[in-house]
């Protein structure tokens, strides 16, 4: 399924999983939009007239600079994805987070399934250098996401995560009860990252190649869960699970099921 679409999340639920990860950015009219990038990717997206967005012009199509009414006119599914050859091309737009929540809540209600857990990654680009260009300032960004998940009555089923420590700090400032995760892709180590954050979050989420048995033990000793990303082959998933990680983020949830 095309990434970060309503159909992709429903497919995950159809596979029998009750949790999924998604990425959010903000539109010019302060809507919370589900998107992996803060712009329209040249790999998968096309303009309203059907012409592909080129690599050179991708950064000209910044979602934070566009109202959602215009954003919805761009297709990000018909071209397929060059990195995922088994993906079935289909028409797809970037949905609002509210739309995703409504669709998934309705699906589980109809199927009498378990409640969905939403792992929401707040995306910022270039940290503070991107503020006002690719995203609002951290506190504003966090407030917009928080307001929505409270309105939809799912705050107790959300894990909010970010690579940007400022976002995690802002969300804690808004509501200390929100379940928080720090994403990590650097080699500075557990202590440095926690000191930089300023508190111990609920979840520590390093890239899978950074994980060692010693890290797993240290994370658990501090009372955190360890969630890793993005693991797309079954042997590596099994190795990490046997090492003691608490959860795995993957582009292939069917592999987790099997």
Keywords:
single chain; 258 residues; alpha/beta; TIM Barrel; 2 domains; 9 helices; 33% helix
Task: Give the secondary structure arrangement, pairings included.
Layout (H helix, E strand, L loop, with lengths): L5 H9 L4 E8 L5 E3 L33 H4 L25 H15 L5 E6 L15 H14 L6 E5 L2 H10 L4 E6 L5 H8 L5 E4 L6 H9 L3 E4 L5 H10 L3 E2 L4 H5 L1
Word description of this protein:
33% of the residues lie in helices and 15% in strands. With 258 residues, the chain is α/β, with parallel strands linked by helices. The protein has an 8-stranded mixed sheet. Helix 7 (213-221) links the parallel strand 6 (203-206) and strand 7. The chain folds into 2 domains: 1-181, Alpha-Beta Barrel (TIM Barrel), CATH 3.20.20.190; 185-258, no CATH class.
The assigned structural class equals: alpha/beta
Tally the beta strands.
Answer: 8
The profile of the biggest β sheet is: 8 strands, mixed
CATH class of the largest domain: Alpha Beta
The run of helices and strands is HEEHHEHEHEHEHEHEH
Query: Could you tell me the radius of gyration in angstroms?
Result: 18 Å
Q: What is the rounded distance between the termini?
A: 18 Å
Side-by-side strand order of the widest sheet:
2-1-3-4-5-6-7-8
The global form is: globular
CATH architecture level-2 label of the largest domain:
Alpha-Beta Barrel
**H/I helix tally:** 9
Stretches where pLDDT is under 50 for at least 5 consecutive residues are: none
Assign the CATH topology of the largest domain. TIM Barrel
Overall pLDDT: 97
Strand content: 5-15%
Relevant CATH superfamily of the largest domain = Phosphatidylinositol (PI) phosphodiesterase
Indicate how many domains the architecture comprises: 2
Q: What share of the residues lie within helices? A: 25-40%
